[in-house]
From TrEMBL:
It holds the Pfam family HMA. InterPro entries: HMA_dom (IPR006121), HMA_dom_sf (IPR036163). This is Heavy metal transporter. It comes from Salinigranum rubrum. SUPFAM superfamilies: HMA, heavy metal-associated domain. Residues 1-63 form the HMA domain.
Amino acid sequence: MTTITVEGMTCGHCEQTVEEALQDVSGVTDVTVDREEEQVSVDGDADATTLVETVENAGYTAHI
């Protein structure tokens, strides 16, 4: 599992946007988003750098 800190999620739509973007990454098997904790947990074998770039491309600040 990879845990990513995501800044800028303010509502349920933000959570959905991040979740859907990450689910489209090859190798991702499950995504859990918690906007109050500013955390996203990603299961699977996708590269962590790719996951961070995907979140940033969706419009949010992200880091591991």
